[in-house]
Amino acid sequence: MVADLHVHTSRCGHARGTPEEYVRRAADLGLSAIGFADHLPLTDREEPTLTMATEDLPDYVEEIRALAGRAPMGIRVYLGIEADYIAGTEEAIARMLARHPFDYVLGSVHFLDDWAFDHPGYRDRYEGLDIDAFWLDYFDTLSQAVSSGLFDVVAHPDLAKKFDVFPTGDMRELYEDFAQTVARAGMAVEVNTAGLHKPVGEIYPGKELLEAFRAARVPITFGSDAHAPEEVGRDFDRAVALAGEVGYRDWVRYEGRVPSLAPL
Ligand code: ZN
Ligand code: FE
Ligand code: FE
Ligand code: ZN
Predict the structure, then answer these.
(1) Gap from CA of 197 to ligand 4 centroid (Å)
(2) 200 CA to middle of ligand 3, Å?
(3) Ligand of minimum distance to the alpha carbon of 36
(4) What's the confidence (pLDDT) of residue 50?
(5) Is 0.90 topped by the overall pTM?
C-alpha cells in the first residue's frame, strides 16, 4: 500500500485531531506509512490561522519523532513539513529547515505577492482577474520554488485551479517546461487528492500535467492533505488509478531527505 505523506495537525490553526488519531486512521486503511507535513511557520511574519507558531515548531518535531519512534499500530511514521515558498526569504527558510531532522520537505506556493490565492477568505480577488496571467505567475513562482533547492517534493502542483479557474490557451508547453524544471532539480511531485473536494473537483495535478511529469521521469508521492483524521488516505484509490493510467509503476517516500522507490 502507498503512504499518505501530506497530513496536517491542529497546530496550524485550521486543522483538527491529534496526531495519534491521524495514525490510527492510516492504520485502519492499511496504508504502509503516514507522513506529517504540517505548515512550517513563515519566516517573515506570524499567521496563526495559516501555519504553526514559530515557538511551536520544536514541539511539533518532538511530538512526531516520538510517535515515529513508537511505530504505533505497526505503521511507519515520517516527520515531514509543508513549507511555503516566499521569494526573498530563501535563506531564512533554509535556516529553519536545517534546525530539524525532517524526513522530507513539501514545497508549496500559496501566496502570490501577498495574496493567499487559495484561501476562501480572499476569493474576491478573482473578480475581474486576468486568469491567463495569474496561471503564468503561479507557475513562474512555483518554478522559482523548485529551483531554490529548498524542497524535496512539489505539493499540489496546479493549486491555481482550486476555485475552478483555468487559462484559455493550450498548457502543454508550460507543463512540459515545468516538468523538466522539476526533473532537473531532482525533486518529486505530489499526487494530492484534496482537490477532489474543492470547487475544481480534480486531483492535483490534472491528468495532462501528470503525463508531463511522467514523460520527464519525475517520481510521485501521494498526499491527502488531510486537515482532519477522517480525511487521511481519502480517495487514494482514484489517485493510484490516475498514476497507473499515465504509466507510473512506482512511488517514492523519504527518510532523512533520501528518497526510495516502492512499487505501486
Ligand atoms: Zn492547511
Ligand atoms: Fe498547501
Ligand atoms: Fe497541506
Ligand atoms: Zn497543502
Answers:
(1) 13
(2) 17
(3) 3
(4) 93
(5) yes
